[in-house]
Amino acid sequence: MPEDIKKETIDNETAENKAEEIEIEGADEESTQAAEEAKDTDMNETESDDDASTDAEAKADEKADEKADDKADDKSDEKKGLFKKKKKDKKDEQIEELNDRLKRQMAEFENFRKRSEKEKSQMFDMGAKTIVEKILPVIDNFERGLAAVPDDKKDDPFITGMDKVYKQMLTELDAAGVKPIECVGQEFDPDFHNAVMQVENDELESGTVAQELQKGYMYKDSVVRHSMVSVVQ
Predict the structure, then answer these.
(1) Of all helices (H) and strands (E), which one includes residue 180?
(2) 157: buried, middle or exposed (CB in 10 Å: 19+, 13-18, 0-12)?
(3) Smallest Cα–Cα separation from 222: which of 121, 110, 71, 154?
(4) Could you tell me if 219 and 132 are in contact, meaning their C-beta atoms sit under 8 angstroms apart?
(5) Do residues 204 and 210 touch, judged by C-beta distance below 8 A?
(6) CA distances from 18 to 8, 22, 123, 132 (A)
(7) R_g (Cα) of the chain, nearest Å
(8) Left (φ > 0), alpha (ψ -120 to 50) or beta: where does 220 sit?
(9) Which residues, other chains included, contact 69 with Cβ-Cβ below 8 Å and sequence gap of 6+?
(10) Residue 60 banded pLDDT, cuts 50, 70, 90
(11) Is the model more confident about 64 or about 98?
(12) pLDDT for 1
C-alpha cells in the first residue's frame, strides 16, 4: 500500500509539473503572440505615418504645380492682352492716317505761305527798286537846279517852294528805305563806288574817294545806283 501511495503521489506531482509546464508554454506563446501583434501594430502605424507624409508631400507638390500653371496661364493671358492692345482697329488706323495727312498738308501749306510771302516781298522790293531808279534822276535835276540858283535869288518864293518839294521827296525816300551812299573821304569800295577818274591829292591817301560826281543810293540792303566818284592815285 505505501508503494501505491507513493506511486500515485509521484504521478500526481508529475501531472502537476506537466500542467505547469503547459501553462508556462501557453503563457509564453501568448506573450510572444502579443509582442508580435504589437510589433505589427507599430509597423502598421509607421507605414500609415509614412503614407500620410507621402500623401502630404504629394498634395504640396500638386498645389505647387497648380500655382505654377496658374502663373503661366496669367502670363500667357497678359501676353495675349498686350498683343490685343498692340493690334489696332481699322478705324484707329484710318484716323491716324488722316491725322498724318492733315499734318503733312498743314506743314506744306505753312511752307507755301512762307515761300509766297518771301516771293511777294522780293517782288515788292524789285518793284520799289525800279521806281526808285526812275525817281533818282528827278532828284538829281532838283539838286542841279537848286545848285544853279544865284545867292540873291535863293529867297525867292518859287525857289523856296522847289527846295521844300526836294526835301520832302528825300524824306519820303528815306522813310521807304532809300538812303544815299557816303563816299567822300572813304576808302574806295567797288561794291558801292564807281570810279570814273583818278586825281592827285596830297591830303588824302591813295585809293581814297576824293570827290563825288553823282550820288549813289541804296534801297534797304541792295545798291540801287553806285556812287560816281574820283579816286586818289
Answers:
(1) strand 178-180
(2) exposed
(3) 121
(4) yes
(5) yes
(6) 15, 6, 151, 163
(7) 66
(8) left
(9) none
(10) low
(11) 98
(12) 44
Nearby residues of 176 by Cβ (< 8 Å), 6 or more positions away: 128, 132, 219
Count CB atoms within 10 A of the CB of residue 178. Answer: 22
* Residues forming beta bridges with residue 229, ordered by sequence position: 195, 212
Q: Output the pTM of the full model.
A: 0.50
- Cα–Cα distances (Å) from 182 to 34, 88, 187, 229, in that order, read 140, 70, 10, 11
Name beta bridge partners: 193: 227
103-141 burial, b if ≥16 CB within 10 A, otherwise e?
eeeeeeeeeeeeeeeeeeeeeeeeebbeebeebbeebee
DSSP string, 112-178: HHHHHHHHHHHHHHHHHHHHHHHHHHHHHHHHHHHHTS-GGGTTSHHHHHHHHHHHHHHHHHHHTTE
Angle between helices 157-175 and 90-147 (to 10 degrees): 160
Q: Please, which contacts does 133-141 make with residues 24 or more away whose CB atoms are closer than 8 Å?
A: 133/224, 133/225, 135/169, 135/173, 136/217, 136/224, 136/225, 138/169, 139/166, 139/169, 139/170, 139/173, 139/215, 140/214, 140/215
Predicted local confidence at residue 108, as pLDDT: 92
